[in-house]
Amino acid sequence: MSRTDWEVVIGLEVHSQLNTASKIFSGASTAFGAEPNAQASAVDIALPGVLPVLNRGAVERAVRFGLAIGATVAPKSVFARKNYFYPDLPKGYQISQFELPVVQGGAITIRVGEGDKAYEKTVQLTRAHLEEDAGKSLHEDFHGMSGIDLNRAGTPLLEIVSEPDMRSSAEAVAYARALHALVRWIDICDGNMQEGSFRCDANVSVRPRGQEKFGTRREIKNLNSFRFLQQAIDYEVQWQIERLEDGGTIQQATVLFDPDSGETRMMRSKEDAHDYRYFPDPDLLPLVISEEWIARVRSELPELPEAMKARFVADFGLSAYDATTLTASKEVAAYFQATVDAAGKANAKLCANWVMGELAARLNKAELDIAASPVTPAQLAGMVSRIADNTISNAIAKKVFEALWNGEGGGSADAADQIIDQQGLKQVTDSGAIEGLIDEVLAANPKSVEEFRSGKEKAFNALVGQVMKASKGKANPGQVNELLRRKLQA
């Protein structure tokens, strides 16, 4: 069988660390980077007699997420004990939710690919449930031993489980990116993957195309970058296909991805729910969420990415691709909206081009977030307005943008105007002046004139370039094209 004869089936489980100041069942801090075990309270380390107290802020963030994805927020949910032994799990069990999770259902729409091959797809979610994180085992700094850091023990997590709706690593990455953007957008998670705030587990299986029954899945644990997520899935898919085509079978298992080798390796055979002996936690009452509480959280939600995307298309005439790019993060969307507010709705497409083009490229090169951009939305809007009213051309605008990036113009909203005036960058729109330049260029380039008149269109572009060079880039390109063609055809 060829690769195209197999269908890939992927579901993701994402652990999103909720950005509360304290842990889910204790008052210990969740701040990152503290000395090992400095933030492990009596509750976190399971000293005898201690009792958990649920963090209201963690619940509220779960409700916010449920509303954002159009899910059902359960009026009553239950915490359970997930029993297993591991050195960094002090209680011998993890408090999680099993049969009755706080968030049930919902969906996220993703956009996969670029250009003509791009398509949209809706990924259904199974559930999202609250749970506590475990501690961390440290191996690198100890010879022949492991250290245990319980600072993470009890950190609040929202585990977000998708249906097995994805059919390629590209779809899985698009979903993970959309989910990552959403949890940051609604301010429930900082999304810092390097610090472990957003971690993905990928359930991967393959089946002959057309078969309804799912293949045996293997779960790739703890992927903390989108690049690793794609590489791990691609390797695992190829491994499973080759094993099946060689006559082997797939054993349900948990595997780890090694970024250095680019390969997955088996960690343990995969447990099922009964292996964990789930049962309701006797120390915690059922979680009851009132309609009034849900209504209040709903009223405090910001405009969501999908709604903003639709508005950008309807109000500004942007393409679906542009709208998706501009709503990829809350910070980019806010920057673009502020730029349009200052430049005017009629210039929205021009604003979009500059935010996604020159600005994005410079930020990427400088390794800066858009919030740290040296060019403010007001300054970019001022420059866009001068392009729109033909004060400067797009080519000259690049010089103005460079000056803005370097802090010229005094940093004020009218910095672009000051730069244009100080550097004499105003576009030449006087027809007489442009005609004079054209006459000089035609006289100096008789060969190009003759080539154009014999049907060679490239000669025309060469003459346009000469006129723009003679004007030091200041002549209005549209007028140059129109007047030059008129003279050549006279």
TrEMBL record:
Transmembrane segments: none
Key word Nuclease present: no
GO molecular function, one term: glutaminyl-tRNA synthase (glutamine-hydrolyzing) activity
Coiled-coil region(s): none
SUPFAM superfamilies, alphabetized: GatB/YqeY motif, Glutamine synthetase/guanido kinase
Gene Ontology BP term (one): translation
Subunit structure: Heterotrimer of A, B and C subunits.
Name by which UniProt lists this protein: Aspartyl/glutamyl-tRNA(Asn/Gln) amidotransferase subunit B
Main enzyme class: ligase
Ligase in keyword set: yes
Keyword tags: ATP-binding, Ligase, Nucleotide-binding, Protein biosynthesis, Transferase
Job of this protein: Allows the formation of correctly charged Asn-tRNA(Asn) or Gln-tRNA(Gln) through the transamidation of misacylated Asp-tRNA(Asn) or Glu-tRNA(Gln) in organisms which lack either or both of asparaginyl-tRNA or glutaminyl-tRNA synthetases. The reaction takes place in the presence of glutamine and ATP through an activated phospho-Asp-tRNA(Asn) or phospho-Glu-tRNA(Gln).
Signal peptide: none
Similarity field: Belongs to the GatB/GatE family. GatB subfamily.
Catalytic activity: L-glutamyl-tRNA(Gln) + L-glutamine + ATP + H2O = L-glutaminyl-tRNA(Gln) + L-glutamate + ADP + phosphate + H(+); L-aspartyl-tRNA(Asn) + L-glutamine + ATP + H2O = L-asparaginyl-tRNA(Asn) + L-glutamate + ADP + phosphate + 2 H(+)
Organism from which the protein derives: Azoarcus indigens
EC number(s) on file: 6.3.5.-
Cross-referenced InterPro entries: Asn/Gln-tRNA_amidoTrfase_suB/E, Asn/Gln-tRNA_Trfase_suB/E_cat, Asn/Gln_amidotransferase, Asn/Gln_tRNA_amidoTrase-B-like, GatB, GatB_C_1, GatB_Yqey_C_2, Gln-tRNA_amidoTrfase_suB_CS
Domain of life: Bacteria
Residue span, Asn/Gln amidotransferase domain: 334-488
